[in-house]
Amino acid sequence: MESDDAAGTAPGDGRQVRVMVVDDHPMWRDAVARDLSEAGFEVVATAGDGAKALRVAPAARPTVVLLDLQLPDLSGVEVTARLLAGGDGADGPAPRVLILSASGEHRDVLDAVKAGATGYLVKSAGREELLEAVRGVHRGEAVFTPGLAGLVLGEYRRLAADPSPADEEDPAPELTRRETEVLRLVAKGLEYKAIASRLGIAHRTVQNHVQNTLTKLQLHNRAQLVRYAIERNLDE
User: Fold this and answer.
1) Distance between CA atoms of 143 and 4, rounded to whole angstroms?
2) Cα separation, 182 vs 21, whole angstroms
3) Which domains does the chain have, with CATH numbers?
4) Which of 24, 48, 139, 218 is least buried, going by the fewest C-beta atoms within 10 A?
5) Buried b (16+ CB within 10 A) or exposed e, 64-78
6) pTM (two decimals)
C-alpha cells in the first residue's frame, strides 16, 4: 500500500484526487468514503441521489465521481451524461466517472460507457482494486472489472465495422485539419489545457474547435465525441 501522500495524487497527474461518492445506501456510501479517505484521497462530497450529485458537483469540483447505477431518482447513466455534458467550463474540467454497481449486465456496462463513464467496477471488487481504479480513472485511463473491457472494445469495433444505414446515406461532415488534430487529442484523453499547450494555441481556441466539431457531427458531449473518434481509429 502506498503512503497517504502518494495515494492522494495519481502518478503522472499532480492534481489531488478529489472524489465524490454517490450511492443511495448510507452504510455502503460511508464505508467507501472512509476507505478512500484512509488511503489519502480527498472525499469532497457524498450524495444519496442523482439530483443532489448534480447540484453539489459544480461546487465540490471532484476529479472522480464514484457513482452507483441504481439511484432512487435518476439513473446513474443519466447522471453520468449530465455531469459530462458541460465539458471544460468556468468551473474547470468535468469530472471523470467511475461506475461502482452491483450489476455486471452487459447492457448496463455499455449504456454507462456510451454516456461517458471512464470506468466500471462491480461492487464485489476488493478495496485495493477500487483504490487503483480511482487512481486510474483520475489519470484518464479506462478501468473495468476483468472481462468487461473486452466487451466494451468489442462493441465499439462492431459499431465501427457495421455502420447504420443513416451513416451510409449521410457521410460525415468534413472537419478542418485543426479540428481533426484537436479531436485526435481529445480521443487520447487529454484535457483542453493540455491540448492547447501541445498545439500552441489558446485554451479558448480548443474549446471553440471542440464546439464546432460537435455541431458539425451533430453530437452533444465529449463522451460522444470520443466514441466517434475511436470508431474511426483517430485515437491510434
Assistant:
1) 22
2) 32
3) 4-152 (3.40.50.2300), 163-231 (1.10.10.10)
4) 218
5) bbbbbbebeebbbbe
6) 0.64
